[in-house]
Specification:
Blueprint (H helix, E strand, L loop, with lengths): L2 H19 L8 H19 L4 H19 L16 H19 L1 H13 L3 H15 L6 H19 L12 H15 L8 H14 L5 H26 L9 H12 L4 H18 L1 H4 L3 H14 L5 H6 L1 H23 L1 H12 L6 H14 L7 H18 L4 H15 L9 H6 L6 H32 L4
Length: 477
Amino acid sequence: MSKDKMWKLLLLLAIPIIVALIPTPAGLPQIAWLLFGLYLSAIVGLVLKPYSEPVILLGTIAASAVVIGNFGGDAIKVSEVLKGYSSGTTWLVFAAFTLSAAFVITGLGKRISYILIGKLGNTTLGLGYVTAILDLLIAPATPSNTARAGGIVFPIINSVSVALGSDPNESPRKAGHYLMVNIYMVTKTTSYMFLTAMAPNALALEMMSKILNIQISWAGWALAAAVPGLIMLALTPYIIYKMYPPELKKVDNKKIAAEGLKALGPMTLREKLLGVIFCLALLSWVGADFLNIDASTVAICVMAVTLVLGVVTWDDVLKNKGGWNTLIWYGGIIGMSGVLTKAGFFKWLATVLGDNLSFGDHAMVALFVIMFISVAIRYLFASGGAYVAAMVPVFATVGLVAGAPPMLLALGLLFSNSYGGALTHYGGAAAPIVFGAGYNDIRSWWIIGGVMAFLSLFVHMTIGLGWWEMLISMGII
């Protein structure tokens, strides 16, 4: 074991021990304090990553089971910490990963890309909008934005950059610099536009629904994100184009599209089936309330149909490491959050914060302050999942005791996790893939990321707030 890994492991072991040695705060059950120590250790582990997320959470669950068995008494049973694995949220994300993989395996994602390039990509700016439209089209079915941006969009746009004669060393500013950074900034918008567009979305909603006592359906989420999201999708390619204009303006898109489609060959039956299944899934998610089913049921049904019809095989599912990793660590973090809630930790935290933090009658000021901090603090996080686990419960609790409108607070936090990740070249797992192509420098990336992240915050806190308040007043969300 390396020294770096060793000190990280020792730190993770020390955190719950130190917390346990500190006297339990007044008004908080001992079991809640001990579980908080383990939860804090898990959060630090997700940030430092001495092991992968599933290993960290499995270790936390094992330790939590031991603590509950010895100190839980009749209040909390060991089975409580495992309830995250029976959560519909966990299975919603896992099942959606199968649909995501299908776009890569069948080649449908590539085919859609080349069709869009042939129709709209006759300029470099047009290619920027092709990226936005493609990402938006497949976002509802790809909870891994790493797979979406890094596995589908990036390889195609990178090939286009090469075809345009843009070399990362000799001529990055010819086209590649613009096209590459645009991929990531676009996916930071599409990732909050649908509940199933980024895995941490469902985790954040699960956590806040308990703290803020709110419920948001798949369709309600999509509707709330539509206006600010579409505005940002319309602005992003153009703003980046103006900030760092590519040297090449015109593109022979017809040739690029023709060569790409020729390499793919005729559309296969699996692609056609996937297209139909995807459309049915979207219709079902949108009409879930009318059909009296939830989003998790739709996702599991879609997963079953893709397997039965042979669009993907079980071997494909087994090879989908992202899905299995998410299943293990999401179920674990949801279980940990659940036992902390049942033990009364978040109720106690709300009481403490309420006694020591006050915005007076300025509840909306509290909302704006929390939202600004929620974006700025993303400079410190290389993982949206780690940010959600560490900060969402805190921000939600602070906002609740400060009197911020629960639904507005929830929507603001749910969306800021994604666009806040635009700030840096490590703000999400897709960033190193795109940045690693070599077309972009850190300085320009951070400048563009800062502009797009805080512009998104401005749009959400102005037009977005007005849109959400209208939806709430109409009883739609």
